Please model this.
Amino acid sequence: MTRIIQRLNADLQPIYMAEGSDDEIYSAMIGGVGWPHGDKPGSIVVLGQDVSTDRMSGQRPVWVLAEMREDAGEPFFLPETMFTAMTALAARLMVNRWFGMPCPFGRERAAHNRQMQARRLPAVSVCTPSCGPDMYYLSTLIRRRLVRNAGLFFGRGDGVQATLRSLPADVSGMDLESLPDVTALSMALAGLERATAAGPAAHLHRPADRVAGY
Model:
């Protein structure tokens, strides 16, 4: 998996670069989480927003940089497995914010964060976008990206791409949380929209505090 390093641009705003490459440069790194649901394991998606704007669409391309449903062969059914993977991704890919539905594992997350604090590693904190579980809005967000030339690219997200292809055109009545991989992707996109709307000086772009988290 690519390692991302953080640098400051000429305007002293953080940018995120793939280690060893001058071509992969991102303006934001956002993570999305879909919690386990029934017999479906949880899912984690990390998006990188390109630093450059596409001239045709006026958008900054968004790339799926990581997609996980398991770690070391252990499916994401247990919260600690997910939290451990999120901490590792925050360090390796410089994920500066996680978005998802309200965490149903508050006690387990608190225990994980205490352990991370003792090791001086980032804590896990998950925000819920203001749109909440609005499946129509979230699916529109995804499809709007997909139909643009500079929209959403599944560089390392073939699993969630396959799930999206299997969905019906009208998903407004579906339970978002029953599709953890779609939840993770849509929550990350909603978080990215929030970060973009807030502007370059928004706190979403600051690095994680190594002890306290975000």
Q: What stands out?
A: The longest strand covers residues 25-34.
